[in-house]
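Exercise: predict the fold of this chain.
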Amino acid sequence: MGRRSRGRRLQQQQRPEDAEDGAEGGGKRGEAGWEGGYPEIVKENKLFEHYYQELKIVPEGEWGQFMDALREPLPATLRITGYKSHAKEILHCLKNKYFKELEDLEVDGQKVEVPQPLSWYPEELAWHTNLSRKILRKSPHLEKFHQFLGNISRQEAVSMIPPLLLNVRPHHKILDMCAAPGSKTTQLIEMLHADMNVPFPEGFVIANDVDNKRCYLLVHQAKRLSSPCIMVVNHDASSIPRLQIDVDGRKEILFYDRILCDVPCSGDGTMRKNIDVWKKWTTLNSLQLHGLQLRIATRGAEQLAEGGRMVYSTCSLNPIEDEAVIASLLEKSEGALELADVSNELPGLKWMPGITQWKVMTKDGQWFTDWDAVPHSRHTQIRPTMFPPKDPEKLQAMHLERCLRILPHHQNTGGFFVAVLVKKSSMPWNKRQPKLQGKSAETRESTQLSPADLTEGKPTDPSKLESPSFTGTGDTEIAHATEDLENNGSKKDGVCGPPPSKKMKLFGFKEDPFVFIPEDDPLFPPIEKFYALDPSFPRMNLLTRTTEGKKRQLYMVSKELRNVLLNNSEKMKVINTGIKVWCRNNSGEEFDCAFRLAQEGIYTLYPFINSRIITVSMEDVKILLTQENPFFRKLSSETYSQAKDLAKGSIVLKYEPDSANPDALQCPIVLCGWRGKASIRTFVPKNERLHYLRMMGLEVLGEKKKEGVILTNESAASTGQPDNDVTEGQRAGEPNSPDAEEANSPDVTAGCDPAGVHPPR
């Protein structure tokens, strides 16, 4: 088996953090251990205890507390997701409704503690509780609280740390190297969209994972945030291709302002939730992963802009995967990288400084203190980069104490390791490269790079090159080769397909191409006129996923991601990018515009729409979200007066908060709707409907599917059958449901919203 395929296998297998999101598919076997579905695993491992006691990573006198904490189930931690105004409204709802209902509650004889905010997470957007995930799901007393958690990410506390330490700004270009399942990626997207009034931040996130199937989990997570600034790609992180962008008509190498390098690891910091680690733990896991981790970190450092910040993290406590990787990376960088002092960046977080001395132990318990003592027969298993530097001055200059090691017993969390690296200059095997991209454009130099040594030896020794991803071709030569390929007429303008198989072996599913809408496409003017789009609307960023036949869905990306797509389709396997902004109606020709608005992209589109906007009250929103096709007379007179003169077709429904009424919802809501003959309906996926209803303080009791009615505590109190004009609407040619047209789309599963949720029937 070659080094690359072995590395890919290790990346796919060694991912114990899969369950960090609380996604339904994550960590079920681990939890089954607590529930008795599998034989009880004895939480003992003598070799583990011997190893870490010898390395002294736990302060003296705390070993018993450390082991006791590891044997306890991990408490549930919650992070409020979404953009700022919505996240604050969810927080308000949690604190004033759901948390109050937990006071004085007992479950199975255990007093339920009201959740408390994580002291180090900004703006109280992350909380922890003594409730295990099992109790949250099974207890009828907590049913309402558990339902509300559908709007919140159940993410392990320590996994929230790396994105915070990246210190992201909306203009940053970000690479997430090992991104699945995606909870950290969603944090990064939220940071890009810190200002909800800016539909297209200058920055973007490229989220990568080696596992094709996990990439689709990543897409699902990212879709929840509906951002035009996220791209999901499928590559081996240790050889992720160097991308190009067009800058003033010339090709330049893309360097990232921020890189998250959350590498595959042995995961012994996750013992509290992945209890299989107790019986499977051995030092061999770390010895096998060290080389891969170093290659991934080196590849990340190469692609980091000068002045940029890279966070390296693992859910392992082992210095072979932690400090040894950082020390080796610092040594081969020859001063290009340095560890940042982040001790004051997360006040309230308890952590131990990185260690400066450690030993290497084989799986059978044999210790080695330095490379010279390792017999030749062990050289394939133990590498020189696993040991601390011998030179005391060099070791001191590295400041390994600036690394952070999170121990489980200090704040009732999992174990974790984080190091923050800043790039001071280009790597020694590279020539000049652009500096960190600021808010204003900077003059950048063309870049030519030579092959990087991704081995555990010295970077300048070509005899030790181990990464097959480097062939000795400089980046300038690659740029010229790509330009030649694009100019020889073999590539259609504006079409970004998957890379040809002769250049890259494709794994998993074949992706549809990304086709940008030409400026002279006759499809766009009717849309522009119908919605009175602002002249500033970036029409060049519209794309479809088909080169033939009718365009059924229109997607949108930011101009920066358009640049990346158009200049890298031959070397990059893109799984997904863009948000859906318009869908073709089945009966579109009967209306002035064949395309209706899609809820997924409405917050991005809304600032550019100047027509067909109806301002609605909070009571209107409740009716529109709980009834399938309410007649005009059910809505307020203000809403009716705005709707009566509009032609049938797609509309925008906008709720503006009333600051004079603090009890009302205090964040703006934008919904896609349809103006029928005598009614208005919303085109909002079910999970989003429920999300808004719960934000307004309504309890969702159930659903009458035939009538398209969602029952709430308010509607249940009213009497009479809810009337609607589904039949009348159908006679008028309006679509049946949000997925009526999507069922025929080639890139959407029939009957499902693209984000993987089922809209109301």
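Check your answer against the key: Residues 283-302 form the longest helix (20 residues).
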